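hey so u asked for the seq, here:
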Amino acid sequence: MNRKVWLLGCVAMGACAMAPLSALAQAAPPPPADTSQASSGVLQEVVVTAQRRSEALQQVPIAVSAVTANQLESRGIGDTLSLAASVPNLDITQNGTTLTLYLRGVGSNASDPNDESSVAFYVDGVYIASPLANMFDFNNIDHVEVLKGPQGTLFGRNATGGVIQVITKDPKEAFSGQASVTYGNYNTVGSSAYVTGGIAPNLAADLAAVYRENFDGYGDNIFLHVPIMRREDLGLRSKLLWTPEPDTTVRVTVDYSLVRSGGTPYQLAPGVIGADGVTSYPGAYKTNTNETDAGNSDSWGVSARVEHDFHVARFVSISAFRDVLGMYDLDEDATPAPVVNSYIHQLARNYSQELQLLSPTPDTKLQWVLGAYYFYADYAYDPITIGGLAAGGPNAAENIFGHQFTRSVSVYGQATYEILPGTKLTGGLRYTDEQQGVSSFVTEGGATVLTVPNQGQSTEKPTWRLSLDHQFTQDIMGYISYNRGMKSGGYNLISPGAPGYHPEILDAYEIGLKTEFLQHRARANVAGFYYDYKNIQVQSIQAGAVNTLNAAAAEVWGFDGDFMLVPIRNLTLSSSLGYTHGTYTSFPNAPFTPPSPLDGPQYVGNATDHQLINTPRWTAGATVEYKIPTEVGSFTPSVSVDYKDKIFVSADNRLAIPSHMSANATLTWRPSDQKYWVQLWARNMFDLHYYASRVETSVGDLQYLAAPRTFGVTVGSKF
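ran it, structure tokens below
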């Protein structure tokens, strides 16, 4: 293991190539029926479940950005990666085939399968634990909610940065559906279908299916003469809705996704000489490697949600299981030489059970929820195989096996009481008891060369929420809040024997205002925040190795806002704006990495007062949508623009993803009977070159570009 420093620096980058749930990044989802607020001339009410009960967005004392199905379609948002264009202070960067989520400067860039995101991801109330599965296609979505700041009570597991909730459609007893086919440049094909109907009295079901493949890829490997950035996605999802009696509802959901891709198209950054001492930047959308990268995954899950209204209280049970398997081949040095080749087998399995008891009606002076949550997960490298010169020779190999289990039990409660007319006080508390264990060993040439004794750690911590809100008028509500959130600890699975890292803690103070005016034709929701961020889990150097440690503290403050206006009938203007100032107040042993391995090894530096990684100072987005009625149907053009300020990818603040702007556009035609549609779409319509990912590694600065301009046509029908 005397090669640990070399291996860990390389594998930390390569292990990012983890497979997501099915994503349809370029094939547009079927547009829903034209029920837009622009047609009615006023803003539609948005209902969210940010406090585990259905409430109007404007009445919730939490900073929430909600995107409806119509907005997803008109803005060309097809998956999680595209969501950042509509949410201020949300940064989503693509590391290989998974996503790194940062919200208001809070997130995690560790790449082990056990590194649960600081921005927790939920689908229909089910927690998606592993970053192996944090990319989701928007095929049968009702709406998406992004809750900002720590959610320490009701979404207590690892929600220090916030929560992304995807709410899917419920089946209907009346038979209906819609389907579409897509064709685009780069020989991209796609299809999408959704069908629902009754199968027995009080029993309905639906099926959503989505498929996409870009056969030509977006670039080339100039050494192997093969296309890169190719991807095939298949996703299936079905929900069963049973109402055996008026007070009881049962929902059972199953899903499956398959990804077959060209893996991680990393290239050396301009001006960097690779580990072979020869290779340099190969050009835009090009790689120069001796191995064909691949990134494949299979994922499936099942969940059951049972609700019963006892009239004195409502009972909810949510049970879920998920299994994800990923297999990845990576040429991590990004050169034609056999320096570091990795073959990564990952798995993540988890089971959760949540029980809730809620107050009977939302319009009483006292609203409350009590809950208990059980979570068990297995995460593993099975194994990581390191080949090439870094393992001792061109044909040498080192296999690292690491397995972590997590068992967590928590109880929680929250209550809201109207202490004065129009004034409500909310208090919530959660207590978490968690145990973790890890086992690991290393083999070379079929022989075990290192066995690490099993390790374990436990955590018992409370988290909480306190807020006060006041309804100044029917359309103006203000609030102040204080929240504490916690992100679970874990182990460095790629570094057998390394000590575990402990939970990080975030205390958040927020003040916000939610308003509607101009007779419900304008909406402005704004919030300011201050975070005290402690025991941050960061990549740090200790005893010559780069591992995840609780090695930093930070201060974060800023503001964000969502705005929407319907100035005239059929015209909708929407925008978002965010500012985040985040700096490390203490980070004395940060890894500093030279651009090229020829410049020397990584070393320890002081990153105190440096800007937080993956945290753009400014983010902004705007969408203009205008429906044009004609005798042959309606034409609806929509243009969305997204701006993201410069971000640093490492705490040394050397390598950055520069500020950039991108634009998407759609033009949709629907006849008057709404049974068909044709949509022309373009993404990155000005063909701007901006980075999907950049990383500092021991083999040099690596990067790859986001997709170039893509365009095509989608034709669909509704029945």
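The domain at 4-718 is CATH 2.40.170.20 (Maltoporin; Chain A). Confidence is low (pLDDT under 50) at residues 1-35.
lmk if thats what u needed
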